[in-house]
Design brief:
It contains 19 helices and eight strands. By secondary structure, it is of the alpha/beta class.
Length: 423
């Protein structure tokens, strides 16, 4: 690993605690990813990125800031990256997937808050995430009550912009979201000093659409009976895509898809043909939360699809590229993003439809619906999900967990029994 200590020190990070985090991560990466056999060669890119996740990309962001560009840190797939890119801004995800950050979050948040929210706040307040230190502005949204209140804390020393996501999907809600996007665009213009034109937004829409298409190619390969990549590796690709430059992300995903398609043609699979195929749904899995996938795939099954924000919701559905005015483009963005079936919506039957559709497309043997503790929205939807899957004759296992490994043994037992039942 390159030496990034001076950069971290300049960012005002807690060097002692960050060193402790850096000592744990390589072991986790080795245990979860590098122990796998017959991995695609193209995974070498994501292996490099995750091995230096707090170094390579942060260093690039800082260099771009020196050129006058602004970095926007986001928490949710509902924030339209296209708007930021059209103003020559940069979008990055933010830390929030590790138990390491939870204690610092609990200093200001109730223990009964979702671990993802506590970890995000803890990563910022504990000064152990470079992305939180680098971002010039945080962009939140109203998809979760826990996050809404956390934004009030995070806004105390960094500019915070919150987009008001409608809670229903009526025609007037799509129009409301269009207005929210237009208002966000004005804020981004003001903050960056760069005008957003229809030409610039058209280019940005194309860039993000190409990224979505590339990620879809990788996922399409997982539909094959000859499974060319593990769920763990695909999850890593998806998690890193929230942080990476979108054009490079598309290039690397297409490179991986090329190899996967060739592996399918040559009959190269990462698992035996009789391995049970699992679709995972529920609360998003922020990097470095690989716990569930690792348990499933070391218990004899394979994860072939994720119906979640760190999965199909992130890249499915393209933005209409035929619009030539800003008003038309904002409407096209609204229509695309409102197809994302977050559990914040009521009713949210679209998510049930997606799970049933994906279960068929990816030829799954069973579904594991897992929510993080205190994630009320996804926990409540378990009832609707399990009922729909039962009616469709698809086995379903409902789980609840957090970032701590204390329940790993119990989860492994339940997952193992579920896989055995599928046989």
């Amino acid at each position: 690993m390159a030496d990034y200590r001076q950069m971290w020190n300049d960012l005002g990070m807690d060097m002692e605690n960050h060193d402790a985090l850096c000592q744990v991560l390589p072991t986790a990466v080795g245990d979860v990813f590098l122990t796998q056999e017959n991995r695609p060669k193209a995974m070498d890119f994501w292996d490099l990125v995750i091995s230096e996740v707090h170094g390579i990309r942060p260093a690039e962001l800082i260099e771009e800031q020196k050129k006058g560009r602004k970095v926007f840190g986001t928490f949710c797939v509902y924030v339209p990256d296209e708007v930021v890119i059209a103003a020559d801004g940069i979008v990055t995800g933010l830390c929030g997937g590790s138990q390491f950050w939870v204690p610092d979050g609990e200093k200001v948040l109730p223990k009964s808050t979702c671990p993802l929210v506590k970890a995000s706040v803890g990563a910022r307040l504990g000064r152990t995430c470079p992305f939180f230190r680098i971002a010039d502005m945080y962009v939140g949204e109203t998809t979760c009550d826990g996050k809404k209140k956390a934004y009030e804390i995070l806004s105390e020393d960094v500019p915070m912009y919150v987009m008001d996501v409608p809670q229903m999907k009526r025609e007037k809600d799509i129009l409301k979201w269009k207005d929210e996007i237009a208002q966000f665009a004005r804020k981004v213009e003001e903050f960056t000093g760069n005008e957003i034109t229809s030409e610039k937004l058209a280019k940005a829409i194309h860039i993000i659409n190409e990224k979505r298409k590339a990620m879809q190619r990788v996922y399409d390969c997982r539909k094959s009976k000859c499974l060319p990549i593990s769920g763990r590796d695909t999850l890593l690709m998806t998690q890193i895509s929230f942080f990476d430059d979108p054009e490079r992300c598309a290039q690397m995903c297409n490179r991986l898809a090329d190899e996967l398609e060739e592996r399918i043609q040559n009959g190269v699979s990462v698992v035996s043909q009789d391995t049970k195929r699992i679709l995972v749904t529920g609360t998003p899995l922020a990097v470095p939360n690989w716990k569930l996938h690792n348990l499933i795939e070391t218990s004899g099954a394979a994860v072939v699809c994720e119906e979640m924000c760190t999965g199909t919701r992130y890249f499915e559905n393209l933005v209409d590229e035929t619009q030539t005015t800003l008003d038309g483009q904002f409407m096209a963005l609204s229509e695309r993003y409102m197809k994302t079936n977050c559990a914040c919506f009521t009713p949210n039957t679209g998510r049930i439809d997606d799970i049933l559709r994906l279960a068929e497309e990816y030829k799954v043997d069973g579904v594991i619906d897992c929510s993080l503790k205190f994630c009320c929205l996804y926990d409540t939807e378990k009832y609707s999900v399990s009922r729909a899957l039962k009616k469709a004759g698809i086995p379903c296992l409902s789980l609840e967990t957090d970032y701590d490994d204390a329940d790993a043994g119990q989860l492994r037992t339940r997952i193992g029994a579920f896989i055995e039942m599928l046989s």
